[in-house]
Amino acid sequence: MRGLDAFRSNPHMPPSRENRLGRTAWVVLSLDLCAQRTTIEPCLAAQANARATRTSLQSLSSISRPAKRRKICESSQRRIPPPSRWDDWAAKRGDGRGLTPCLLSGALRLPSSQRGDAGRIPDEMTINVALATSDALVIGCDSIASTVSYYVDPIRLQELKKQPLTPDESGKYTIEFTGEDIEPVVTNAWGGVTKMFEISPQPSPVVAVTAGLAKLNDLPIASIAQEFCEAQKRRRAPQVKVQTICNSFLRFMRARYEDHYNESAIPEQFREGPLFLVGGFGRNDKFPSIYRVNIQENSARLAFENGRTGVAWEGQSDAVERFIRGYDRDARSDLRDKFAETLKSHSETLTLHFTDLINQILDRIGAKMPEDIEFKVPSPPPITINWRQYRVPLSYSNLPLQDAINFVSFLVMIQAGKSRFSIGVPTVGGRTHIGVVTRDKGFQLLNEPPLQHRYTGFSDDP
Question: Among residues 30, 92, 281, 353, which is most buried (max CB within 10 A)?
Fold first, then answer.
């Protein structure tokens, strides 16, 4: 896309972002989409990961360095081809082997789901936690929502693409960029947002908690979910299975999602949809079930059912994942890439070393390499790690209900604390909400305060 014909400093940029990146400037762009100039509007997100971390070239791709070329004296004697010539040598032998620079897996990653090569790279916001024990479902979430704007950093693009920013005759600047260069930045956040709600009453109590887009067609997700719940109550033939209710909820929300973007000029890869953890008890269920629902992908995936217990999370959950697993996905991916890069580099170094050594020996004794001898350095073995050994040993099925409630609240607070004390706009926090679903009592929200009129004016009158 070629869309920036003028840029200006953004007066709404959070000060913390400027402090972190110093001279880096962020600008709002008018994008050329669908053959007409339009602006991608900020969206309200109940998911939040505000800080659009500056991306370096190393984080965009990890490309193996080709071995240095070594000059080999011309000789009629047969020698071992150096690594820099293995491409031609392999082609002659027909095995297709060669040292080709490659993009290592995980170079461009998302903490949750990949939304397309040309799409933006949104980090999640909010925290949702759902715990299935043997006799109850406990759900927790925070209550912060955020507004997100889309930015391109022209200074970073100038450094990466070696494109100097030069003005035209009118003083305007032009720069080329792709969808991957557009980053979401949280510009505002506030609390008091309802993210947990009942979608099916007794005798089949089912609850949902949401992350991602907080409004569809200007209606809060909680209000849309309430419409679905009211429709469930009016059904002549009630749905009694959690899976059936979950699939109906997915279809209901997907229709609202499609209507929300019906006349939108925003490309599919830039669209954001709500995410849900949906769980509860069917009429005849002895144990709770949990499903992961992604409206944009139009999918509902089973997490736990039939006595299989455990904890699921959604949204900005790196701190929760580190506590439960002992690592998060970013750390694991970085370690995997580093292992692969180091082993590949070491293998190339060994190949170059032994190639030179054997060629020196052949030169010294004036011999040729026999035709039936093939010099080959074995490929480095894969490194396997038992990642499960780092998990916190927890017996989810045997947790008493009060301990389960305390545990879910603790996980929400871990993520909220990380967001609160790290640099940038806090994107997890506010009041922690805890809900419990049991077979006999259905859905209960715990310790929810009533609405209050706190600001009574500036008068001292009682």
Answer: 281
Pairing label, strands 127-132, 219-220: unpaired
d(CA 244, CA 139): 20
pLDDT given for residue 397 in this prediction: 92
Per residue in 281-317, pLDDT tens?
999 999 999 999 999 999 999 999 999 999 999 999 9
Question: How many other CB atoms sit within 10 Å of the CB of residue 244?
Answer: 15
Q: Three-class SS of residue 70?
A: coil
Please give the residue that has the higher pLDDT: either 358 or 295. 295
DSSP state of 306: T
CB contact at 8 A, 221 and 250: no
Q: Which residue type occupies 77?
A: Q
Least confident of 45-54, 151-160, 169-178, 311-320: 45-54
How does DSSP assign 114-173, residue by residue? Answer: ---TTS--PPP-SEEEEEE-SS-EEEEE---EEEEEEEE-HHHHHHHHT----B-TTS-B
- Listed residue (165, 132, 145, 120) closest to 1, CA to CA: 120
Q: What SS3 class is residue 44?
A: strand
Instruction: Evaluate if residue 187 carries a pLDDT over 70.
Output: yes
Of 261, 249, 159, the C-alpha closest to 204 is 249
CB 311 within 8 A of CB 292: no
Nearest 5°: phi and psi at 183? -120, 140
Q: Give CA–CA dist 12/21, Å, rounded.
A: 16
Q: CB within 8 A of 172, min separation 6: which ones?
A: 5, 6
Q: Kindly list the distances between the CA atom of residue 25 and the CA atoms of 1, 14, 189, 383, in Å, as whole numbers in the listed order.
A: 20, 12, 22, 41
- What's this model's pTM, rounded to 2 decimal places? 0.68
Nearby residues of 357 by Cβ (< 8 Å), 6 or more positions away: none
CA torsion angle for 254, 260, 264, 270 (degrees, to 10)? -50
Spell 295-330 as b/e; 16+ CB within 10 A means b. bbeeebeebbbeeebebbbbbbbbbbbbebbebbbe
Task: Give the bridge partners for 300, in sequence order.
Answer: 293
Rounded distance between C-alpha atoms, residue 344 and residue 382, angstroms: 11
Q: What are the structure tokens assigned to 151, written together?
A: 């930015």
Instruction: Establish whether the linkage from the previous residue to 203 is cis, with ω within 30° of 0.
Output: yes
How open is the CA angle 103-387-102, to the nearest 5 degrees? 5
260, 253 in Cβ contact below 8 A? Answer: no
For residue 55, what are its two tokens?
A: 């991306």
The alpha-helical segments, DSSP class H, found in 235-328 are 242-260, 318-325
- Tell me phi and psi for residue 222, to 5 degrees: -60, -40
